[in-house]
Each structure stands twice: as C-alpha cells, then as structure tokens.
Write a structure and sequence with these properties.
This protein has one domain: OB fold (Dihydrolipoamide Acetyltransferase, E2P). Helix content is 0%, strand content 41%. It has no helices and eight strands. It has 90 residues and is mostly beta strands.
C-alpha cells in the first residue's frame, strides 16, 4: 500500500502586493481630463458632475477643473437611503 506522510502547513505564502486603492487627487486640487481621482473596489464613492466611473469603479475627471468632495444621500436598491461621498470636478 502506498502512503503519503503529512504535508504540514505552509506559513510564508501571503506575500501579494497591495491594490493601491484610495483617493489620488484631493479637494481643491486642479486636474486635467482623464486623470484618476479615486481608485476603489465597489462604489464606496459616487461620481458627480464633471466625472465618470469606469468598469472597475475608478472615478476619472471628465473635464479640466478643481476637485471637490461632498456628502450626498443615495437611495439603494432596497429603498434605504445611505450617505455617500460624491466626487465632482468644476
């Protein structure tokens, strides 16, 4: 009969790089068209006027201007309203 000994546990396998998410341009900063403003997983911040959101939820500037952040109430699918941060360029 063949027999395989116990494999044990591997401890040093969690060494993947971070995703580099977060706010890239802050309120009051001047931006140009196409610049990345926020990188996020899921829609934690919403795109306002002068911005657009890409397939991976990254918010970009749709025009030249100055970045601003504001709290807005957003309705969810269930009807519950939650506060979200809206990113806009004007």
């Amino acid at each position: 009969m063949s027999h395989v000994k116990a494999g044990g546990s591997s401890k040093n396998i969690h060494n993947n790089a971070g995703a580099r998410l977060g706010v890239k341009r802050f309120g009051g900063q001047k931006v140009r068209t196409g610049e990345v403003l926020v990188r996020q997983t899921g829609s934690t911040k919403v795109a306002g006027p002068g911005t657009f959101i890409s397939r991976n939820y990254t918010i970009h500037a749709a025009q030249d201007g100055v970045v601003s952040f504001a709290k807005v109430k957003k309705g969810s699918f269930t009807g519950k309203t939650v506060q979200r941060t809206q990113v806009s360029v004007s």
